Prior knowledge:
Keywords: Ubiquinone. The protein is α+β, with helices and mostly antiparallel strands.
Amino acid sequence: MKHVKKSVLIWYSPREMYDLVVDAPSYPKFLPWCQKGEVLAQEEGGLTARLHLAYAGVRHAFTTRNRMVPERSLTMALVDGPFSHLQGEWRFLPIGPAAACTPDAGPQACRIEFDLSYAFSSRPLEAVVSPVFDKIANTFVDAFVARAEQVYGRR
């Protein structure tokens, strides 16, 4: 099983980063490996999403059920795809005085924590998909930080 754990401090609010992460249909705009992102079902406290990967000649899709706590976290659990195991979590932790957490205070900093563990369902599949997915998993946080700069401006 592979494990990716990243943490970064940024000058964007938890709300701003949460909004980017939960917007799966926008992923193809800034994730070059994502051919399509779609929300299959939306339920109270979460949603089910499917991502279609297309990178270096490899094409696969996977579905996750995502539990969401607005502006705080998103927890992913595998529904289907080329994995035997896929589990992940995004956490958005505000940084700064309590006053900075009010809506009128404007932008604030936050710490993003990303934790993902995964394993592929077969050795042949792992041989083909793992090099691509390893690169994706290890650059995921950086891609969202770059997207925040595009959407909200450099800070």
